[in-house]
Amino acid sequence: MSTQNENTVSPEKTGSSDARIIARILSGDKQALEQLIRKYQDWIYNLAIRMVIKPEDAEDVTQEILVKVITNLNKFDPSRASFKTWLYRISANHMINMKKRGFENSKYGFENYYERMDFIEDKVPEDSKEIRDLVEDTLINCVLATLVCLSREARMIIILGVIFRVDSAIGAEVLGISRENFRKILSRSRTKLKRFMSTTCTLVNKKAKCKCHMKMTSLIEHGYKNPGKLMYKKLHHDKKIREVLGGSVSRFLTKYFYPFDAIFHSHPFWKAPDMVAWLQNAMQGNEFEHIFDPQNVMNHFRTNSNN
Asked: Is the residue at 6 inside a domain?
């Protein structure tokens, strides 16, 4: 399913403006580079946090991707793909092939993800803002962590196809696979998530066995949760995923076949940490100096004009 909102991965609306910004960057305009980073840093960060779950890991991944993007800007060819598609291809490839970190090292699968929760006693929690915030934080963490039960490729396809509503044409181009394969992996992965969450999560099925708020008191008592250490509450956002995406979603599909879509879309679209400040510190060295060599812009346009 595609969306018409200009902030999504769909490349059509911003290709020419991106090309102009890149031309300015390659001719030595450092402010243009900051403009490009501000334009895309939140999208990269929100892809990353849904891939690696922990905000600190997502920040590291975002920086790693930006280094790859920045140091390869002179290789971008607007005649072959939009900048957005090129950017997300780099992002997706990096996240699929990078070293495992954080939650990925826990070796969760759908067969054992819920295992320890079977031993956590249900207790009615106290009604306080502290507990409500902890429940909200835990709900987000638990839902996102289920994605780690999928392979990296399948996880990325769910992130693109379900959470960010990228259609199969763009998704296939980003991942370098056929549209048919993108749709097949999306369908299989969706079915796995649906089957698992329908039996465990009351957000999807009210008769499921895990009621997050009822587990909270015991989780605190066992030291698994701490109201003073929330994972996502410290992050900033002013919109939910569904508000950023816009468009419409089939009510039938959401209610009867893809009920977890609405859960993902209810999550925040987080603001990335200040990547411009990070870039400014990095540029005090010579890591990105070659980008602003005037010869690069001539080579860039000479190469593209010959294609």
From this structure: no
In this structure, what DSSP letter does residue 118 have? G
Say whether pLDDT at 14 is over 90.
Answer: no
- Residue 157's nearest CA partner among 175, 180, 178 is 175
Q: Which of 17, 32, 21, 28 is nearest to 291 (CA)?
A: 28
Give φ, ψ of 240 to 5 degrees: -90, 165
How many C-beta neighbours within 10 Å does residue 30 have?
15
Quickly state the pLDDT bin for 291 (edges 50, 70, 90).
Answer: low
pTM of the model: 0.84
- Model confidence at 61, in pLDDT bands (50, 70, 90)? very high
> Quick one: which H or E segment has residue 39?
helix 30-52
Does a structural domain hold residue 4? no
Residue 146 lies in a domain: yes
Q: What's the number of domains the chain is made of?
A: 1
Whether the predicted pLDDT of 293 surpasses 70: no
Tokens linked to 216: 């909270």
Answer yes or no: is 3 within a domain: no
Identity of the amino acid at 81: A
User: What are the residues whose beta carbons fall under 8 Å from the beta carbon of 112, sequence distance 6 or more?
Assistant: none
Amino acid identity for residue 147 in this structure: L
Range of the domain at 131: 15-305
Report DSSP state, residue 253.
I
